[in-house]
Amino acid sequence: MGSLGFDIAHLLSGGMLVLSLLLLYQVRILAVIRVFALQAVVLALSVAWQAYLQNAPHLMVTAAIALVVKGLIIPFALERIVRRLDIHREVETVIGAGAIMLTGLALVALSILLLQPGEGSVLTREDLAFALAVILLGLLMMITRTNAVTQIVGFMSLENGLVLAATGSRGMPLVVEISVAFSILIAFVVFGIFVFRIRERFDTVDVGAIDRFRGERREHL
Amino acid sequence: MIFPVDALLLIPAIAIPILALVSNYRLGAALNVIASGASLAAGIALLFSERTRSDLIIVDDFNIYLITLTTLVGFTTSIFSASSIGHEIETGRLTPAFLRFYHAMYQALLGAMNVALLANNIGLMWVGVEVATLSTVMMVGIYRTPEAIEAAWKYFILGSVGIALAFFGTVLVYLAAQDLLGEGLPAMAWDLLVKGASRFDPRLLSLAFVFLLVGYGTKIGLAPFHAWLPDAHAEGPTPISAVLSGLLLNVALYALLRFKMVLAANPETLDVGAIMITLGIVSLVFAAFMLYRRRDIKRLFAYSSIEHMGIAVCAFGIGGPLANFAGLMQMTAHSLTKSAIFFAVGHIAQVKGTQRIADMGGLSVTHPVLAVGFGLGVIAIAGLPPFAVFTSEFTLLSSTFARMPVLAVLLMLGILVSFGALLLRLHDIVFGDPKGPTGPVKASYGPLFLHLALVFLMGIWLPDPLVRWFRSVATLLG
Lengths: 221, 478
Fold this sequence. Notes:
The complex is a heterodimer.
Chain A: H1 3-25, H2 29-53, H3 59-85, H4 97-114, H5 122-144, H6 148-168, H7 174-202, H8 207-210
Helix pairs in contact in A: 1-2, 1-5, 1-6, 2-3, 2-6, 3-6, 3-7, 4-5, 5-6, 6-7
Chain B: H1 3-21, H2 25-48, H3 61-90, H4 96-118, H5 122-140, H6 146-181, H7 190-196, H8 202-220, H9 228-235, H10 238-264, H11 272-290, H12 297-318, H13 320-352, H14 363-366, H15 368-382, H16 388-403, H17 405-430, H18 446-460, H19 464-477
Helix pairs in contact in B: 1-2, 1-4, 2-3, 2-4, 3-4, 3-10, 3-13, 4-5, 4-10, 5-6, 5-10, 6-8, 6-9, 7-10, 8-10, 9-12, 10-12, 10-13, 11-12, 11-17, 12-13, 13-15, 13-16, 13-18, 13-19, 15-17, 15-18, 16-17, 16-18
């Protein structure tokens, strides 16, 4: 592995991180979905590069899954849902763009501090810092969004970080890659069902509207 | 002999497609009982088979009794479910098509828990917990009321974030091990991890444990991450509440403890015990006070589950042979008692047609047998002798008083506060003026009283092999 190998791997992981930050402050729901699709494509490239670097052809399967499922099918399906429900205009975020970006930057700094390159192979640790940052930003996005569709995207962005972490670790057994791909598929099925059920019951996908139906309502009303 | 292990994994795998295809719901329920019974037989056979290990599967003192416990509660719950399922059809809450789905998911849950318990590979263990989570999410939302959908959504979001963080922790453990154990399967095999842990990078292990604690801690229902638990218990079908509380929480705790053993083998890692004690005490005291304001009977016992898992986590955090013994005992006793209570609660909710505590009362007049079963269950879970929960809590308290008196006071506070709340509600439900419908119970009392008998038996006498297993695991846990 030459230093070019490291650099390209870092470039791709860094690209994912930038896209995660971009995701944070998007207000239009369609823009959110498209940025996510782009992130999935970069993930696919990154995984494919790792497959080449580690000489591990089975990682190509993971890359293909990321490209086809997360880069094409899911964004396409989500866009259809969004258009059909006619919610493609504005999405509200809980806090403003400035505050959310600062929080995001703090999280990135935290993950770099946590996984400073120490002993051991440099490549894995730095990749891991990127992956952790993507995971934490996905978490932040899920927290700050009130819309079910954007929360889904936040979760899938988080899963992108997980795949990045798993594929960046040299020789992690195949079991894990299968499980990750598997979980994404199941997650999508579950999510899909939920979105439809939510639509069926509430005529909205705004999670704020579900909150009215708390189990523990005041009895004297 | 490897046969019981294969059976434990194969039976659910065969049962799922069959149950998904059987359209007659009575036949489906019967097949579900048969499949769960076969799993129980395999679980018992496992007790008498040899300990084995491979890079994927392990059978040791720790999981052998948990598997038996899981298959036992899975079997009794399937009987309870089969005997009360007709009611769901009558009231129109579920259609036969949904029941097909329900039975298939039930076996998926049992199979996934077996995978998680049997796994030696920490990645495989994660897959088991994840599949178990997803299958319960589907079942929590099965009534499709607004409340059920909210509960399932909340459970799904919190559960998958927890699971995602646990996965990251798993990757970190692999990375820590990979330098020494080499790439591939051995670096994810738990028993090899424990052996080599003293030479792993302690900082990486510590960081991994933080993620694993938050991740699996969410699934255990520890206090700051517990928000999904009461909703999921209250809105899903009662058999699912029983297996959620009785089994899935245990499986998540088991996964966490496996990693605690890895860290315990490396003295330079962070003090896991202190974090676990804090989380456990916070869960215990918080849940104890929350018990007072519950109006929904299933929600009440969901908070009681948080409380008991808090006690168990605290016990493992304190560590040492005695406290670990108490923790293992607590896991077993809570699992049996809480599922018994949910069986009783299911019967009560069915005859009264509501889950509101205010609408049920005078159970001792209208349904004396049920009142006795429910009363004994609540007394057992509140920690009164001669039931097993008393034994475990007493062991824990007496060992803690000797070592950390302040902590023992806090534990005592939580246990007493919850004791008060539970007896208060028990009084409301069992005594007082009869309220609501007085129709007969159309379901089997068998599972309820079987569990109570087991808890009683464990409270007065522990079989020798069980004591030996508990001891050896308690030593391993450090």
